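seq/struct pair 1
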Amino acid sequence: MRQFIVVSHTATIDPGFSLNDLPGSGGRMDLLCRCVGSSLLISHASRSNARIYLLLQNQITIRIEGSEIRYLHPDERCIAALIKKALEKIPDTIGQIEVESTPGIYISKRNFRSLLTSIESSGTFIHLDEEGSSSHTFSLPQEPIFILSDHQNFSPLETDILTEYVEKTMSLGPISLHADHSITIIHNLLDNKTI
């Protein structure tokens, strides 16, 4: 299983955002939508061996399962509509217990620490950072969990939490890339590794 955690600092947790204004009223929801597409979609199908977690404002976690997802199309508006339906379920969530909004999409009230704690036994955390070990020499584990930030850097508190949970930091190169592009490169590395 390939897992991705995308930490969003600005995406709204209000389901009232406009599908016509994802960067504005959605608080850069467009970035998250691109990450979902890069994580789960391939040509005419979805990756059954991939999962993505979206952490919004360190309060809400949305888990999307590639093996269960339905109605997922590559356009940002479609993906945003599925996230919007998930956010509408916030009143139904009780603590960290997940609620399914649509097939393959689950929402809970988990912050960064509780998210990492809940999944740490399912794989090896890898922080993607320009200062990490080169992907050319990096030994990818069997069950990787990649952690990325949105268009903002991790906060000092998030960095402290990362140091508690993450043993490995990997670099895709010296140039800072968009999160969705990084995910695509990761898939390519893993796809080629299995050949």
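seq/struct pair 2
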Amino acid sequence: MICPTGCYVSPVGRVDGDGLIEAFLREPRRYTSHQVAEMAGVPVYRARRFWRALGFANVADDAVEFTDSDVEALKTMIGMVSSGLYDEEHVLLLARSLGRATARLAESQAELGVEELDQAGVPLADRPRAWRRRAEKVVPELARLLVYAWQRQLAAAAGRIAEQDMSAVRLSVGFADLVAFTRLSRQITGSELARLIDRFEGTSADIVTSGGGRVVKTLGDSVLFVSDKAHVVAEIALRLVEHPRAKGMPELRVGLATGPVVWRMGDVFGTTVNLASRLTALALPGTILAGPEMAEELEGDRAFQLREVNRLSVRGLGELAPFTVTRG
């Protein structure tokens, strides 16, 4: 859809002297923004509002940058509003969530493509031609896989929340953080740092999902995960801390909290999330700190051993007495 890098199209968008952008779009660019808006039956300012929500910057009025798919995408969003399926603000929210998710996907897939070309020893001068050949093979496969994964994730999410009051969600939240990551990142090369992040994100995602939790997001050196069951989050935390790591992998520290959260566009917010994050910062390397409500949920569960620690001042939340969590 539209300019795949989200760039302002002046010479930056014209990196395709060899037809590179068309190779990924898989169709020719033939319309200006005004033509697309006219074909969709809306003023150009409104069309640009939807495009910006998807993460694409405005382009010059006379730039021929848009394809038939851009027209169809705009018509689809306008149709969702005119049919009453969503109001316009909700369509814009959907567009923003799609834009954020697909931008991250696109960046990661492009990076992996560069790594493949590097490993194959393709010279920089030959990259555009190699990218074109790669696009012809990879784009259709990735498109099918993207739709498949999205449908499965949507089915799972709908099953979880179909009968849930989203204004009063109570969850257990875990926040795991690599210790001394900033210092370590200054001591290793960029490629070593990338491998470290890949290893951490892959390991943490495997442990969280196999343990019955859900990864909300990863932030390079940390991961936020949730479950509606306190013992599931606590067990995941223990597995994360106990997981044998390769040489040079920093220790983890984890903060846990239970309470009301606000779900919004795939992310979680609120005091419970803040508490888990703050406790992570206060935890010693290799340890797990749980808030009082989380400890109360785990009390009596012989799988865990809880030990109250001295009262701590938690930034923004006052004083409280957290508990360390270890195996029972």
